[in-house]
Amino acid sequence: MQAIIDCLTYEHHHGLLAAAALVCVLGSSLTAQIARRLISADGARKRFQTFLAALIGGATVWSTHFFARLAVNPGYPHGYEPAKTGLSLLVAVVGLFLSKTFLGGLRRPYAYGVGGLMFGATVSAMHYIGMLAFEVPGIIRWNAEGVVLSIALGGLLGAAAYHRLLIPITRYCWLGGALLMVLSICSMHFSAMMAFEVELSPLVPIPQELMPDTVLSFTILSVTTVIFFVGYIGLNIETHLERETQQKMDEQAKRDALTGLPNRLQLSRRIDAETDLLAHYRTRRTAILSINLTRFKEINDLYGYTTGDAILVETGRRLQTVTDPGFFIARTSSWEFVALKTGFRRVEEIKALAERLNALISEPITVGSHAHKLQSVIGIATSLDEGRDPDDLLQKAALAMARANAQSGCSANFYNAEMDQQARARLQLVDDLRRATDGGEFHLAYQIQNDVMTGAARGFEVLLRWKHPIRGNVPPSEFIPLAEDSGLICDIGLWVLRTACLDAASWRTPYTIAINVAPQQFAQPSFLEHVSDILIESRLPPERLELEVTESSIIDDEAHTLEVMHKIKEMGIGIAMDDFGTGYSSLSTLRTFPFDKIKVDRSFVQGVHKDPQRAAILRSTLLLGAAFDIPVLAEGVECETELAFLRTERCQYVQGFLFGKPMGRSEIEPLVNRPAPSLAS
C-alpha cells in the first residue's frame, strides 16, 4: 500500500494523472448510460448501442492506461511501439463489444457475472498488451502474484459494475455502475503497475521507430476527443429519439386510433383535473353529456365494418369542429361519446349544445353509393343541480342517456333523481336475485295441463316463483327480464330444471313436466351436458320432460338452436314452441324445427268465443298444427265458453285457471301420487 501511495505522490505527473482520471470518469459515465439501454433495446438499435458503448468504453480503458503510463517519468530512455499500441486499443474495443453483446443478449441472473468478468479480462488484456508496447533499455520482469491480483480486481469490480447496469433498483443505478467501472479500471491499472520492475541493461537497444511521449500524448488526446464527441452526440440523439418516441406513444395512448378523438384514458384524466377545479372554485360550472349513436349498430351489421369505420371517422371529424370554449369530447366505446362543457351560465346553453351535437351527427354521411343518416340520444347532467363530483355526473349522464334511449323520439334527456332511484332499485334487485338461489327464496309452482275432450290431467307446466325476504312475492314479469339481462338466468334455469326433475321423479303418476328454457341457456356450450346430468341424477325418464322455447329465441341463432334441438330430440326429450303467435310465427319455423307441441299464447285464447279476429288466429293455428301433425295447447283458459270453443275446433290440450291455479309442491301431492287412468288413455 505504501508503494502505491509513494508512486501516486512522487513518481507521477499530476496533470497527466488528472487527465487520466477525467477521461476514466467521463468515459465510464457515457459507457454506463449507453450500456443500460441495451436491456430494453433490440434490432438495429441494440447493435448500434452495443458498438457505441464498446467504442467509448474501449477508448476510456485505453486512454486511461496510457495517460497514467505517460504520467510516470521512469528516469531512463523509453518509447512506445505503434503497432502494439494500436492493437491494445483494438483489443479493448472488441473485448468490450463482446462483453456488452453478452450483457444485452442474456437477461438472466448470471449474465452480469459473466459479462463483468469479460469486461475485467478485457481491461487486463488491454493493459498488458499496452505494456508490451512500452520499450525500455532493459528487461521488464513481472510479479506473478501482482498480475493475478490485478486481473482479479478488474474482473470482480467489473462484475459488480455490470450487476448495477443489468439489475437496476432505481433510475440512478447507472451512477453506481459507472463508479464501479472506474474502480475496476483504476484498481487493475495501479495494481498491475506495482507488479513489474525494469532491469536496465546496455545490451538491450531501443528501436528507432518508437513514439515519444509527446506524440503519444497528442495521439491519445485526439483519438479520445473524437470518440467521446461521437459518443456524446450519439447518446444525445438516442435520448432525443427515445423522448420523442415516448411522447408519441403517450399521445397515441390518449387518442382513439380510429377517430383521433381523446379516448377513455384522456377523459379520465380530464375528469380528475375537473374534480380539483370544482373543489377549489365554487363558481365553476360543469356539464357532462353522454352520447349514443342509436342506428350505428344497424348500419354496421348491414353494410360491414369498413362502412362503419368510415362513418365513425366522419362523425369524429364533425365533433372536432365544435370549438366552443371549455368544450371537450372523447370517444369512450364503439358508438358512444362523452362531452364535457365548462364556463356556461344557464342550463339552456347545454340544451342548445346538445341540439347542435345531435344536428351534426344526424347530417347524412355518404360512404360509397349510400347516404347514411345516424340518430343519437344524449344524456345530460350538470353541476348546477346534480352535485359537483364529475365522476358522479358522468354516471348520471349515462343513466339519462339510457332513459332517453328507452323513450321513443327523445334525443336529449336531463338527469333527474327518479332515474337514480330506479337504477339503484334495479341494481339492488339484481343483487338480491343473485343470492336468491342459495338463500332458498325460489320455489316452484305447477300448473296443470289437461286434455280438452276428457278434461283429464296430462302434465304440468313448471313455473318459477320468488319470495323476497323483504318485498314478499316478486312477479315473474319483473324478475325474469332482470335475470336474462344480467346473465343470471342460466344458473336460475339450471336450478329450476334440477329441482323440477327431482320432484317429478318422486311422483307415483308419470305426468310430464314442461319447463321454459331461456335463449341464453341454449347458447351455453354445456347446456346439453347439464340436461343429461340432471336426468341421470334424478332418474327421470327423458320422455317425461318437455322443454319450452320461444320463437324469438330461435331467430337469434337458428343454426345453433336447430343443432341443439336435434340433440335434445335424440335424448328423447320433447320440445314445445311457447307463446305461438306473439313472435314471428313463420311457417318455415314449424317446418324446420322438430317441435312436439305448439302452445298458443293466452292473449289469443281469452275471449276467443266473442272476438272474431282471435277466433280466426286460433283456427289458423289449429290448422297449422294439424297440417304439421303437431298437437296444440291453448293457454289462459278461464271460462267454460272458451273451453267449449276449443272443443268445437278440436284443440288437443288446454291450460288455465278454469282447471286450477298454479300449485306448490305440497298442494299437488294428492294429485301426482294417485293412479291416473286417463293418462294412459
Brief characterization of the structure:
By secondary structure, this protein is an alpha/beta fold. The protein folds into three domains: 2-200 and 208-246, no CATH class; 264-415, 2-Layer Sandwich (Alpha-Beta Plaits); 426-676, EAL domain (TIM Barrel), CATH 3.20.20.450.
CATH fold assignment of the largest domain: TIM Barrel
Please identify the structural class as seen in this structure: alpha/beta
Mean pLDDT: 83
Q: Which word captures the global form?
A: elongated
Distance between the termini: 117 Å
Strand order of the largest sheet: 12-13-15-16-17-18-19-20
Q: Write the CATH homologous superfamily of the largest domain.
A: EAL domain
Helix content: 55-70%
Description:
The protein is of the alpha/beta class. The protein has three domains: 2-200 and 208-246, no CATH class; 264-415, 2-Layer Sandwich (Alpha-Beta Plaits), CATH 3.30.70; 426-676, TIM Barrel, CATH 3.20.20.450. 57% of the residues lie in helices and 16% in strands. The strands form five sheets. An eight-stranded mixed beta barrel has the order 12-13-15-16-17-18-19-20. The protein has a five-stranded mixed β-sheet with strand order 6-7-5-10-11, with helices on both faces. A two-stranded antiparallel sheet has the order 1-2. The longest helix is centred in the middle third of the chain and has 41 residues, at 213-253. It is elongated and about 140 Å long. The model is unreliable at 1-10 and 677-681 (pLDDT under 50).
